[in-house]
């Protein structure tokens, strides 16, 4: 089998579950070493074990809250020292957070969603870029959502959608800023994907009635007749991480089985 990522190292945030876990597995399957950044819980250690069972020594988990500036900085250094280099950065960790009508959304809940989804992306990029520059290039991939710019059907998601649109603007600006260093930056916008993200969702009582029915209705994706799979997204991440996308930067790629066209 062709090994697109032999000798390369990837940092994947939110790697304990869902899209991040599938992407880490995919990158490892093609030769990459993967640093799994997540709130260290049983799930993240299980992801590490599952990857290492198939690709011995490929994965190592790091207990990282992406919203903690010092911890992100330290963990990036620890991973770079352990693996010797960083080539691919998948800034993917995110939460749905509190879904509520705007006047009921507390400042605390608003800030929590912004600090993980948006500031977490900033911190992950900020602290990895010096390593990519030092090596003469690299690929950064950021997970936004169709909720950033394509689809606004999720009631109570003002904070979430704001972070996703913000991640896209951030991705474009740094794509421009980093192009001369041969660092590519692309944003992926998944539609509904079967993951554990619902566990990170807090829904206000008021919204329960309207949010639950519109959330991922059966057959909501014309192409798949249901939600997509994390592995579908992992294939896109691998493409953007690889040299096959060598001339693609500053792009946003929707991966939603036509959900946002409905
Ligand atoms: P998931 O809940 O299955 O996985 C997300 C992972 O991020 C979890 O392991 C969680 O522990 C981790 N995480 C949460 N807060 C963190 C923090 N502060 N620091 C470090 N790790 C943290 O969900 P997923 O669907 O795989 O989500 C991944 C990304 O995909 C998110 O950015 C999400 O917004 C985006 N997304 C998901 C969907 C979907 O339908 N599942 C659609 C569009 C976009």
From TrEMBL:
InterPro entries: NAD(P)-bd_dom_sf (IPR036291), SDR_fam (IPR002347). The keyword DNA damage does not apply. It comes from the Bacteria. Keywords: Oxidoreductase. SUPFAM superfamilies: NAD(P)-binding Rossmann-fold domains. Pfam families: adh_short_C2 (PF13561). Belongs to the short-chain dehydrogenases/reductases (SDR) family. This is SDR family oxidoreductase.
């Amino acid at each position: 089998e062709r090994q697109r990522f032999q000798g390369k190292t990837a940092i994947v945030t939110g790697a304990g579950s869902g899209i991040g876990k599938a992407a880490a597995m995919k990158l490892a399957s093609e030769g990459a070493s993967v640093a799994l950044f997540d709130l260290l819980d049983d799930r993240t250690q299980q992801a590490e074990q599952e990857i290492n069972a198939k690709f011995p020594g490929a994965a190592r988990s790091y207990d990282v809250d992406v919203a903690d500036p010092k911890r992100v900085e330290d963990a990036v250094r620890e991973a770079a020292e352990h693996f010797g280099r960083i080539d691919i950065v998948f800034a993917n960790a995110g939460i749905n957070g509190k879904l509520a009508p705007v006047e009921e959304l507390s400042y605390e809940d608003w800030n929590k969603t912004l600090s993980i989804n948006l500031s977490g992306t900033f911190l992950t990029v900020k602290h990895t870029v010096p390593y990519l520059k030092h090596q003469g290039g690299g690929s950064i991939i950021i997970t936004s959502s169709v909720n950033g710019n394509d689809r606004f059907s999720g009631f109570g998601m003002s904070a979430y959608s704001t972070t996703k649109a913000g991640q896209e603007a951030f991705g474009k600006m740094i794509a421009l800023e980093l192009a001369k260093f041969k660092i590519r930056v692309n944003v992926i916008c998944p539609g509904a994907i079967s993951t554990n993200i619902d566990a990170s969702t807090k829904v206000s009582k008021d919204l329960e009635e309207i949010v639950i029915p519109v959330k991922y209705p059966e057959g909501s994706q014309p192409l798949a007749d249901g939600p997509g799979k994390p592995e579908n997204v992992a294939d896109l991440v691998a493409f953007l991480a690889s040299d096959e996308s060598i001339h693609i930067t500053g792009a946003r790629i929707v991966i939603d089985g036509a959900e946002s066209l409905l």
